[in-house]
Hints:
450 residues, 11 strands, palmitate, signal
Amino acid sequence: MKKTVGFLMCLAAAGMLAGCGGKTDAGTSATTAAGGGAETVAQGESKAEAAGEPVVINYYDWDIPDQKFIDDFNAANPDIQVVVHSIPANGERLTKLDILAMSGGDMDVMPISDGDQFTRFESGMLAPLDEFIERDGLDMEASFGKYAIWGQSDGKYYGIPFRATQTGIYYNKDMFDQAGVAYPSDDWTLDEYIETARKMAEWGKDQGIYGTYTHTYANEWATVAAQKGEWYTADGKCNIKDPAWQTALETRKMLDDEGTQMPYGQIVAVKAVINSSFLGGKEAMVNAGSWLVRDMKNKDKFPFDFNVGVAYLPRFDETVEGPRSNYSCSVLGIPENSKHKEEAWRFIRYYVEECSNYIAASGNLPTYLPAYNDEMVNIFCEGSGLDVEYGKKFFDGDVKLTTNKIIGPCGAQYMQIGKEEIEQYFNGEKTLEETLDNIERRVNEELAKQ
């Protein structure tokens, strides 16, 4: 409980609790969900349960695959009624979920993505799931393989993996054809990636087209270097001065400064985003997750008209074996404050184990390995315009995966400190040496508190 209160205080200190009221896309009032209004949702549920009606559980998410799977679950489980609430897919989504989880509100199933889950596991926000897992005989390794670790903290499970993303280099085949530049190979190296990006930038400079694009997400600069770099020293201290990280940072700044890609500061200033930038024809290549396939299906919002190819990530250097991808995973957890943990667990298992095709159809990667089959790749690509042969790369069991997310002691703080310091380096406000010194000092201070 003390950790949870501390976590909430950190949000408040950062000014994150302001402006989180209002309605979600589904029309659910955030203040009502947190206990405001004449009658709270929880009070209404208690009356319904007392009358022998189904237990209502509330699921919030910013990426609902299809309402039909919710309807199917409700039909198959008449004692439970799942109500889904869509929240905006913007930078405030996690803050809204945090408040709902910690306020004693009505949320029973909480999605958390891309490494953000570990701080929440440690805070006590989510209920441990080990008793459910053991009772049901769920083999986490057999069911989720490489994704299982994303639901763990300190040897306990607090989340069940349900969707994932793997990174590739998407490229505009039409631009490459016009430029007379060979398509990226699946065995290329970082040096070859840089050379290709420069060729495409030179071709596109008079048209306002960049050679490639790297976004401003925390540690996005590290997706390739993660094949070689280590975040911690052997004695558990900050290892940001690992040569691999230095090379990656220098490479990002070099490509920015020479105009090969849109500079970090410009991306922030114009609020550029990966999907609309690449699908809008503003660069020849982009380093992006498999989730971009989801946006390629949305032709109303992204009406692109060119052919897209996908290559594996470049290898950091010749010593690294391929093929390579960067990955991260989203999990479903049950808030400690939920009054319906048993029912929430039943829904999570149904969603994860029975709805992989729905997840694939939405352009996301399912994490439940027993559900994988050739048809799933077709479902994943359908409607996107992406050739199935490219889509198969995201389902390749032989690809070697690493992650740019920091999964370890003070991982969330490590990434936040890095983002704060590194953006000053990218914007020319600090030298690389100053940047690395500051990160090392600040992260080691956090580690010393453990």
